[in-house]
Design brief:
By secondary structure, this protein is an alpha/beta fold. It contains 24 helices and 28 strands. The radius of gyration is 25 Å and the shape is globular. The structure holds iron/sulfur cluster (SF4). The site of iron/sulfur cluster has 14 residues, from helix 1.
Length: 743
């Protein structure tokens, strides 16, 4: 029995910030990750320098965070008053300098140049890159703007780097991608939770509360090549930590499948009634007996057997309270990300966990609205309501809501990495609109991304602060932030929640909805782009009606009156769907698919001059590209710069001391950062956080190879060389020489 779990660093224990303690404030949710912790924002008397109120943040009771917040959440209001907050449109002059201009001048310039590019080079001359932090309303409006006003097929978003592998696998195997198809508090009752590649104790600390039950029963299993904060939750009998070789998560899963099949741990009744494909799955897993898997993934065979049996014993068919298989970016951000998630789903299906109360499979969405963004139009191949842009009926439905001919809607675009690689090429787009994203830091192989952005004729960036991408813009448009706007978000469990305005935006910042309306009018579409979020939501609800992500029973008014709801909500009186898949799978025959997968060598395998694994990831104190959190003084002070985490054995071998500068080199590039020496990592692996720009940008080192099925970049599998950084050669002491001459 483990000791009582302590609250993870940075979290507020549940109950310390009661829901009613700030009832006079504005009830909203954190701007950052997909846990979407509930907050109450209260103005402080006196206000800030810009005249708008300064806000205090308190946690609010809500099923996902139960009153808790992490450090990012507590300090989130500080981003609103960042000293370099953008408050006026800026236009780059012939001299290369960005200067403030009026909104009319900026929008006229953008419209004129977009029209020009389209006339010269066709509709696909203009591309759009969105962000997973945009509200559902903004995501919807941006997708509609791209397809109706620009007529371009080229839209995608940074959620491609987050959820694409899990979404592709979930749709293929289960017919549904809703993140978690069950409410988060359900985890508390399980006997076993297999957490594959997520460091949630650092990235979303309030989540840890939901694991207290399974930890108390010794059933938490964490796979991570690092002894992360989450892996540490398995200590003292709370569970098992597996530390596979990076890039071999699929081998771990194939071995678990092998044991479940070989030891007859399958829930045959469930498999017969609710799935297809057992025979072919059996054939694919047969080759991965635990001893063979151990030789590839480094996890002891006895541990693999132990975990398979733990999961099976926890499953309802064997009398357990329930078991869950959860995936995170650690296993998904790979060139075989879809295959890896598919194997995780296969495992959950074999054990009869999916679509059953108290058990299940789900991916842990990262970005605040990564889920809603892809449901409502930011993804290259999707229309609102999770409709397919290639399906004639789906096109006809959405076109009718938009009042356009279905034939006028473009076809599918291309995934984000491919899109970024096309920019400024002979056949690619010559103009790009970036909305709520910072690909110069967050995309793989950022040197190449910078090159492509520089080759554009027009780069328009909508942002709240001068992010690294915004600083490259030809036109920079300042937009509102979360506490300055109304809208909705869809969290990691498919729960639609309300975001509410607590203060006015400073200066000339405008909502993206207003900007899209103004641009649409200038481009000849004067109607169909309301600037009020509730009106956009009402249209989104109609467009989603009958789709997989059906929001048609929702409105801002209903969410305000009745609180958050899980989709689908197909009618105004419908209570929502906290548990999806209970009555069957939305596939042609109502059954889930057991799909065989094979392990492939990584796209960038180890070699003599790159014998180490580079893995990238997140820190508690920073979020995504860091454009927001690096502007919060306490978060920046806690984690001011990038570093390379490595094991003492590796450091000794290379002659590197803790804190010493090291040179990291991969096929894509090289950089220098200080070493952080810790035993909490495999000796063959180096970890770098990816939140930092410039010389400390981990994505200078990652490559552009992607998963062929989902377009997910292989962030987690890069071959690396590490060297002590050459000490800088001292510059000649010019002053001394001159002094000597003078003498
Ligand atoms: S960053 Fe995530 S975990 Fe932290 S307070 Fe915000 S929503 Fe909660």
């Amino acid at each position: 029995m483990p000791s009582t779990p302590s609250a993870p660093a940075g979290s507020v224990p549940a109950g310390t910030t009661p829901a009613g303690s700030a009832s006079s404030g504005t009830a909203t949710h954190c701007p950052y990750c997909a846990l979407q912790c509930a907050q109450t924002l209260t103005p402080v008397a006196g206000g800030g320098a810009d005249g708008a109120p300064v806000l205090t943040v308190e946690g609010r009771d809500f099923p996902t965070n139960q009153g808790g917040l992490c450090r990012k959440g507590w300090t989130s209001a500080e981003v609103l008053t960042a000293p370099d907050r953008l408050t006026a449109p800026q236009l780059r002059g012939a001299d290369g300098v960005l200067r403030e201009v009026s909104w009319d001048a900026a929008l006229d310039h953008v419209a004129t140049h977009l029209r020009e590019q389209r006339e010269r080079r066709g509709a696909d001359a203009v591309a759009v890159f969105g962000g997973g932090g945009l509200t559902n309303e903004k995501a919807y409006a941006l997708g509609k703007f791209t397809r109706v006003v620009l007529g371009s097929r080229l839209i995608d978003y940074n959620g491609r780097f987050c959820m694409s592998a899990a979404a592709t696998a979930s749709n293929r195997s289960l017919g549904l991608d809703r993140g978690l198809p069950f409410p988060l508090p359900d985890l508390a009752g399980a006997d076993c939770v297999l957490l594959l590649g997520s460091n949630l104790a650092a990235t979303m600390p309030p989540f840890v509360q939901h694991l207290e039950g399974v930890r108390s029963r010794g059933g938490l299993v964490v796979t991570d090549p690092r002894g992360s904060a989450t892996a540490a939750l398995t200590a003292e009998g709370a569970g098992v930590h597996l530390a596979p070789v990076p890039g071999t998560d699929l081998v771990v899963l194939l071995a678990l499948l092998h044991v479940v099949l070989a030891e007859d741990l399958v829930d045959y009744e469930y498999v017969a009634a609710r799935t297809t494909g057992l025979a072919s799955l059996r054939a694919s897993a047969a080759a991965w007996w635990p001893e063979r898997a151990e030789a590839v993934c480094g996890v002891p065979a006895r541990r693999l057997r132990q975990v398979a049996r733990m999961l099976a014993d926890a499953s309802p068919s064997r009398g357990g309270r329930g078991a869950y298989v959860l995936t995170g970016r650690g296993v998904e951000q790979s060139t075989q990300g879809t295959a890896t998630v598919t194997a995780a789903i296969d495992l959950a299906l074999l054990l009869g966990l999916v679509g059953r109360r108290g058990s299940g499979y789900g991916p842990l969405t990262g970005q605040g609205n990564g889920q809603g963004g892809r449901e409502h139009g930011l993804k290259a191949d999707q229309l609102p309501g999770y409709r397919k842009i290639t399906d004639p009926e789906d096109r006809a439905h959405v076109a009718a809501v938009w009042g356009v001919d279905p034939e006028s809607l473009p076809g599918p675009g291309v995934p984000a990495v491919e899109l970024l690689g096309m920019l400024g090429t002979a056949g690619g787009p010559s103009a790009l609109i970036v909305c709520g994203a910072n690909p110069v830091v967050s995309a793989p192989d950022v040197s190449r991304v910078r090159e492509r952005l520089a080759a554009l004729d027009l780069l328009v960036v909508l942002d709240t602060v001068p992010s690294e991408t915004a600083l490259l813009a030809d036109v920079l448009l300042p937009v509102t932030q979360w506490a300055e706007e109304e809208g909705t978000m869809t969290n990691l469990e498919g729960r639609v929640i309300r975001r509410r305005r607590a203060r006015e935006a400073p200066g000339g910042a405008r909502s993206e909805l207003w900007i899209l309306r103004e641009l649409a009018a200038r481009l000849g579409v004067p109607r169909g782009f309301p600037a009020e979020a509730s009106a956009v939501f009402d249209e989104l609800a109609r467009a989603s009606a009958g789709g997989r992500a059906d929001y048609s029973g929702l409105s801002h008014e209903r969410l305000d009156r009745e609180g958050s709801m899980h989709w689908p909500v197909p009618a105004p009186g419908h209570p929502g769907t906290p548990h999806a898949l209970l009555d069957g799978f939305p596939t042609a025959d109502g059954r889930a698919r057991l799909i065989p997968v094979t392990h492939e060598d990584p796209a960038d395998p180890l070699r003599a001059d790159a014998p180490l694994h580079l893995v990238t990831g997140r820190l508690l104190e920073q979020y995504q590209s860091g454009a927001q959190t690096r502007r919060v003084p306490s978060l920046l002070a806690a984690r001011p710069a990038a570093f390379a985490q490595m094991h003492p054995l590796l450091a000794d071998l290379l002659g590197i001391e803790d804190g010493e500068q090291v040179l990291l080199r991969t096929r894509s590039g090289e950089l220098r950062v200080p070493a952080e020496v810790t035993e909490e990592i495999r000796p063959d692996t180096v970890f770098m956080p990816f939140h930092y720009p410039g010389e400390g940008s981990a994505n200078l080192l990652t490559g552009s190879a992607t998963d062929p099925l989902s377009g997910m970049p292989g962030f987690k599998v890069t071959a690396l060389e590490v060297l002590p950084a050459p000490r800088p050669v001292p510059a000649p002491d010019v002053v001394t020489v001159q002094q000597r001459s003078a003498v």
